[in-house]
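Quick one:
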Amino acid sequence: PNNSLNKLIVDLDKAPRDAEGRVTFWADLHVIAPKERARGNGVALFDIPNRGRKNALRDFNRAPPSFDPSAPLDLGDGFLMQQGYTLVWVGWQFDIPHRAGVVGLEAPPATDNGKPITGRISTTFTPNSADPTYSLSDLGRYADTTHYPPVDLADPTRSLVVRDGFLGGPHPIPRDQWQFGRLKDGQVIPDASAIYLKSGFQPGHFYALSYEARGAVVAGVGLAALRDLASAIKRQTNLPVGARFVYASGPSQDGRLLREFLYEGFNADEQGQRAFDGVIANIAGAARGGDFNARFARPNGLGFFVASLFPYLDLDQKDPITGRTDGIEAKLTPEQRPKIFYTNSSGEYWGGGRAAALIHTTLDGREDVKESENVRI
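Output:
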């Protein structure tokens, strides 16, 4: 944890240490490699798990979805195998269920003098029915807050706000009209995983919940898991898997993760050498994840309007409002930068607030800009 390149990990200094002074964690690993390494193409392709799911065989091999691709039919048309790739899935995300075939990670807790860290968190949801109880676990894979229960179910500072739509005006709901709990047999049972609203929730309306939570973990070790395994596969000779080059590919959430990975400088390993040699960030738009390496991180979020996070270009650009100059690859030396493909659809240009044009235009959108030599769009 004293390595300067590991200080990128938020709250690493608040994680427990073992007898050797190290921070420990574990991640799931799944590899499909050529039976005869000499017949491989020397490239390991990391398929960044999307909420624990394996997508490369679907995306590249036209295979059916599978949590445990082991049978011949799970490999689709075999394209990646015919090309000689080694496929790697390693868990980076702590907030997904640990079950067979799902690729996740167990992150260490973040503590302050041995006590769990507390802090205020917020989440949003849109109910589909007019029930008086809304289960926070219904936020499902996109914004589950059950990892961070309230410090106090009767917290006097908690708040619930409703809007007619995403951009509608806020209407605070009085605290005596709602509570953490669920209606059962005519009684409201206190429950940290649900909200009870006396008048019932309005379907299609936009609710925002805020409260003091506990249970923070060092989520950023997931980025270190990707970095360190990529480096080890290239540089350690005693592993059952090896490669000359390592690529990373991922869509949507994973594309945002890869842009954040580059921006925070994780493509430099603990020795300052390049981790990934190539990156394919698909349908990320101009967004990068603001919730992957943070206290009370919630990586499952859909990333709406996270394109408000400057910078957008790989090359340095100046924000004329703040005067700040920054770039996606600003923390990496030329030797540490990978070759990058950014691919987007009309959805990233026009929907979800991901503003894909910002990766190749000026901030005012009036003209195209020169992109880095290692980037293709």
